[in-house]
## 1
Amino acid sequence: MDWQAINHRINRMSEQLQAMQSPDGAWRMCIDCGTMSDCYFLTTLRLLDVRDEPLIRALADRIVSRREPEGSWKLFPDEHEGSLDTTTEALLALLISGHYRDGDPIIDQAKQFIRSRGGLNNVQSLLTQSLLCVTGQAEWPQSFRIPLNAMFAKDGPLPTLFQMSGHARVHLVPIIMMANKRFALRTAHTPDLSSLFLDGSRRFQNDASIISVLNGLFGSLIGLLSPDDESLYRQAESFLLERLEPDGTLLTYSTATVLMLLALVSIGRSPSDPIMNEGIRGTRTLLCSDPPMVQIATPTVWDTGMLAYALGKAGLPSTHDTMQRAARYLRLRQHTRYGDWAIRAPNTPPGGWGFSNVSTRYPDCDSAAAALRAFVTDPSATLPHKPASIPADDWDRGLHWLLAMHNDDGGWPAFERNGKPLPVGLFNYSGTADIVNDLSHADLTSRVLHFLGEDLGMTTKQQWLDRSARWVLSQQEKNGSWFGRWGITYTHGTGTVMLGLTAVGVKPDHPAIARALRWLLSVQNADGGWGESCYSDQQRHYIPLGASTPSQTAWALDGLIAALPSPTKELERGVDALLHSLDVQPAQLNRYPTGAGLAGMVYVHYESNNWIWPLLTLARLRRKFHS
């Protein structure tokens, strides 16, 4: 093992990260979800007649820059063919921008690709269909026309709002409002894409009457639903406005915000209303990099928590100015307001953290654990202990909130405890299960376990933690891997679980850990690293990328470090590959989207992934094998 090279890389990354910190203590890195958010914001700017030609032109240029040579757009780089839905969004946005017209080669090639994939009738994504409908290209699907009184009911045959995930709620409510109004907003810039509906119907093939779906699921339904009246639209409007963040965004999501703005127009609000202006201004704050792209949300709290934690593990003392500034930033972002999570945790005071810089209502377990970890950076402290960098009451509130989100099955959700799986047949769209459900996942649960074990000294001797470990063990695949919901995919899940289980006392030679180790070694690349395709997330089995990425190599190495009693040649090859990837690997591999959003819809490149995970892995390696 080349410890000189490892120490050099740790020190160099630490110095670089210190230089990258913002004056307020945060790290502000970008997340790239492809062109989806760019297309939605550009289209909304035109529909609401927001006159900002430099921004509209810049967004159009950014969209064109992601185009494939044959004329399509992809969800992820190794997608065999382009994505119909992504290409449709890009085509519509470029035409509505006014900077591209029919007859331009870029437009003609995009249309040719769409026809080759069966036309717009075959668009599968709920959000892409909504974009086509709100611009008047298509009829609103019958399955979107869910009566609002059913959605706001406390119970009934339909999934009610608060049975769904929070992010599903804020996206579906504006879509259902517009669908029930048959709302379309046309301007002088709006194109006519009717020729791309090859059967001439302007309808989508995956549409089905909601009543027929319900009858199939629940039997004959008589007198189930009543028509919407205006009071229900006002209730829906209040639901949305009550969930606005201080910057005017809806739960910090750019996509939810623009859908909300269009839904408000559908019920009579003027495009010049102050609420609309605040929403546009808030969405502008999600612009990142040069040329600008629209992030789906800012990852600032998550990045700051995890980078401070990584720097602490790399040896930066908690008294260092960098760590103190990060702690101050995170203290100011701790939640003090109740959100929808309190419905299923009514006796829990606020205390979590959200993913984004302005999040005040939608905390998540991953970000809360990341923030708490950032305060526990003194390796010499006796565990368990309360860190000095946060007031004891605030620490207790944060830890209590995280523990209160523990699901009855033993796992942790992303946002709200004890969600129930919903019949996804009601929503026959790409990524439905991921957007509607918020269930326990092995990767997120294992990150919480790793925090509780490594940083707070908890073990499976505590019955409730033993139950969590048993639940995670029950999720192991037959081949020894674990599925990762929030990273791509089995590499992420397996390495994360191995770290989490061993941190709370599961022995490294446990049969499940041994099987996981064998699986990781079986998918190691010839160059020593690891790389997995986003296809794994779509198809729910491991599919190799054919090349190594820094974050996936780091996740796999975490599993090896957790399981091995001493370095092996496979571990050494993996470390060499990681160091090499950080130095000379082609940029496209370092930008591969190893973050998971919604299967078949959203894949995410976190700029921070190539900093957080390699630095943590190298620090763990040094601490275990070279201390």
Note: The two ends are 13 Å apart (CA to CA).
## 2
Amino acid sequence: MQADTKIIKCAGTPYEIGFAHGSGASAEIHDNIVIYDGFFQDRAKINWEEARQRASAYIPLLSAKYPDILEEMRGMADGAGKGLTMEDILTLNTRSELGLTNVADGCTCLSQQGPEGRIFLAQNWDWLQVNLVVLHIISNNSPFQMQFMSEAGLVGKVGLNSAGVGTLLNGILASAQDKDKFPIHVLLRRVLQFASSFDEAFAIMEEYGLASTCNIVIADAKGKAGSVECSPHGNTVIPLRGETFPYVGHTNHLYSSGRPVMAKDHPEDNSFTRLARLEELTRQDNELGIPPSFDSIRTRLCDQQGAPLSICLGKPTDEDVGIDRVTTVSTIIMELSHGVVQLTVGRPCDDPPILEWTLGGMQ
């Protein structure tokens, strides 16, 4: 793992959790604001102040339905200092709603059942080279501890909780938005904070809804898993399939047959080729009797067929600017039935060092 990636323990009240995050990752949060200021100007044609104004439209909803998360954002702003406000942190946490109607994260996700009830979640996250942190959160207002990889300043992303519920995320390029529903990264945090099973996670998604379009892969320690295509028009579960080591994969396009007719996306061609290649590699392993494991799944996520737009995305060149500098930023593989997580920062095909943690180590 890159030496400058921080692991930050945040405990206590919502404000105290936010303050620990903000003070522990102050430089990274400020740097991410600079990155997203440029991103918003490039893709959404708005400056940071305009982005703050748009993000503030979510304050009434969150004040009514999730006030603790706004208090955490307030603490984060105070902890990060240099004049940041809760609205600045909220703007980071609505970056999908503000910017991904113009461009989507590239991600390759997989959930697969293994022998003896093992269940895996795995993801390559392809995006701009933002500042990452690992957050270990012990909240006074949650029965579960959480540990997840996130962009500095974001309240939720991909990881798991001490009940064994894990989350992955695919960005989807789509225009639909609903400010009466939760922003994606806030919803991910709500799931990790309160869900003890796949069914509870899906119930949270149904209760609060998604403000914009995405795909969230969820699994629990008992082995129930699915890929949930989410939009403001509704959510659709794609179940695992296959008899031997059943699995479901997802990239950056909608493909569930039962999705709402109003759910429309605008994918890049490489989303289809990455998904087809992931499914091909997974079928090959299944046919050879190779069970899913940290090593076998990592091998699939290192695949470079079709480079540079491959599962392990190519490196940006010196000539690339803006969104053309997207690359594989991190890889996370979780085995939920035993509560083991392996995270690498950088392209997995470059063999970066592995950070491992366990549910037992979260106590």
Note: The two ends are 22 Å apart (CA to CA).
## 3
Amino acid sequence: MKLQLPVFPDRNDPRPLVMYHGNQCPDGFAAALAAWLYFDGHAEFLALDHGDVQSPHDLPEVAGRAIYILDFSFPRDILGHIDSRAAKLVLLDHHQSAAETLTGFTCRSGVVHFEMKSSGARLAWAFFHPDQALPDLVRYVEDRDLWVWQYPESASYLAALDMEPFEFERWHAICRFDAADHAAFMVRGQAMDAKFNQLAQQLARHPQALRLNGIDGLMVNAPGFFHSVLGDMLCRQCNTFALMWSVDHKGQVKCGLRSSSGFNCIPLAQSMGGGGHAQASAFRMPYQRLAELLGGRLDA
């Protein structure tokens, strides 16, 4: 896969800054890995979650620098601030709500590119390494991130990968596994995946009814790494949406939304200040609203 874009990476880029989707996101980190390898580690890397940057004052210095934004985006005003000061700006993302928000944005110093049928990691590897084969690690990460599951071995591989630290050197080593290392990695992942699914099934046994903006769905309290598999289980029961919530270290209530194929959960997420994909979105809210959520009714 090659991206037909008007700009290219350059190892002589001025003080490159790579901002990517963090928050323990394998897709965002695999995207950043592509840049890390291209620049041989000689760049500044910043993992971000949505809401971390509220104004341009929350950003590192961007003036005169090459800015790469991977598997992530900013509101129009903040992106405009970056574009007006950067020597180069490249944004590669695949989140539908972000693409809609930035419709019509004119990039002065580079390109803002969205492809909803590709993962953020695939886009980054196609940009930074267009002549190299896509690593298996990226194929498997994309398989789950897009919730396609076209590779039978994805679940086991990713269960093992999820136990690894988010360190560029380690993920690069995993990309270079020989056949024996790969086989051992898969065996370890198979056991982990079996236990993970058992725990998810237990969490899904007693969901609570939720009416969000007048629409009925199901919800359950669960850590973020259970959201996709739990959401898939619960959506099969209600045929609309499932909401999984937890409280982070800042006291924010983090809500993940998953929906059945015929239901677009983006409007629900956007009404609460979030966004994402049609079948996988998210938003945050202050803990003061947790009582409403637990009461089974939440309105924007």
Note: The domain at 208-298 is CATH 3.10.310.30 (Diaminopimelate Epimerase; Chain A, domain 1).
## 4
Amino acid sequence: MKKDEFRHVYSIIKPYMIKEIIGFFIIIISTIISLLNPYIIKLIIDIAIANKDVHNLIRYIIIFAVIYILGTILNIIQSYIFTYIGEKMLYDLRLNLYKSVVNKEITFFNEKQTGEIMSRILNELPDVVNLFAGTFINIITQVATLIIAFVIMFTINRDITIISLLVTPMIYIVLRYYNPIFRNINLKFMQINSKISNVLQENIFNIKIIKYLKAYKFAQRRFSFVLHEYINKRFDSVYINSISNTLLSFLFFIPSLILLLYGGYQVIQGRLTIGGIVALSAYINQLFQPIKSLSNINIDLQKSKVALKRYLEIVGKDKKEKTDDIKMSKIKNCITLENVTFSYQKDNSIINNLSLKLEIGKIIRIAGANGKGKTTLIDIMCGLLTPQSGVVKFDDIDIKNINIYSLKKLVGIVPQNTYLFNDTIKSNIKMGRDIDDNRITTLCEKLGFNDLINDKILNLSSIITNNGDNLSGGQKRKITILRALAHDPQIIILDEALTFLDDYSKENFCKYLDQIKKDKIIIMISHEDVPYLDIDLNINVENSQN
């Protein structure tokens, strides 16, 4: 394990270290107590029953009962501790992975499908938790059982104990052979589960177009295909698992034959008591059951290791937070781009050596054909993308050195696509920010968006359904405009913001922009001429690239 990976693993375990140690201590005590039972039975047979000693019979039975009760209590405590650790760890890991994902650059979401990201957060993290609060605990329990059972067996009969262990090298060889196979199968399972989540998510999200085109069979085929992939891989898993389990079961059967043959011979010769062979029979199961359990745990272990690796693939690449970044409350002069180059794919720059100067008090229109980098340029100015070369400066400060949270207060953006949440209109506008309700109402009145506050059916407390299906295109656009302007940003970016608005709303919106432009930078991305608004600077992205 690499140093960074070890650091992340340690950070996962650290908050639960004390509880883990207490749990391990209880496991050891519980294991010792449970392994005393066969020895107590040996004493009952060899001392109490053989000598017809009622006093010792009652004494050993009481001890047997006390051991059972104590073991049960310890198991309840152990179960509570590790259930708490598991649930709390799952919560923390999901939250940590979620925060890591949402802080990634936009390019991350271009490379990863939505279903895959959801699958990693929802489906795979329980396997990571299982590694620390399930599998690892089982390993400790089984190893402790194996060692203690071996010690007790060795004190009862050294020869049978040593002979029984001769099969362990063969068990190791079988496990060593099948480990990489199970690891590969589990990786494939996780990848297929990600595909299933993604196809299902796409089909549900695009349900309207499926219904419009009556493309039910097309959508079903896509879903059926990935389900068949899963079934085929499941058959492979069952086949390999059955072979490995058959081999291991045969190896576990050999010690029982040795005990019956050699142990029975020693009883006949008088070198071993009846109680001794009964106890050894129980302890052989206690000795090899952990080995058998470890072989089954091994399958879960390989699955958990793959899930952990996929978790670290995301959180392990997080950028360290800067402690010396600059908190910027206001731009005094301009935004400048100096020789900015950006590409999504190597050797295919969408923006090439671009230099711009965007000044306070100006309304700037950025034009250009589709796919020429207009929206990409905005993402770079907002800090969502990092250019391969060149510098973006707010006044004379490199955007890389500006605190990201102060940057978001400076910028208000209306994206080309509408993004809404299943919540109230007011919550969709505020987005968790401390914005007074009166500010929203006043802004609606200034912009002429009165249908969002005075309508009999619709108001700021109305719930937006999935994807805003209960709103018109114009109402959705108005909400995104209010969202962008509600916190009074100094930089206003409008990506095809007039789309879906009626002429009355367009005119009011443009008049408002003209009124507030004095201390702001207003950037409009539009294919067409902007009505009702005087543009101070027109920039064609294609012509601006050197």
Note: DSSP finds 17 helices and nine strands in the chain.
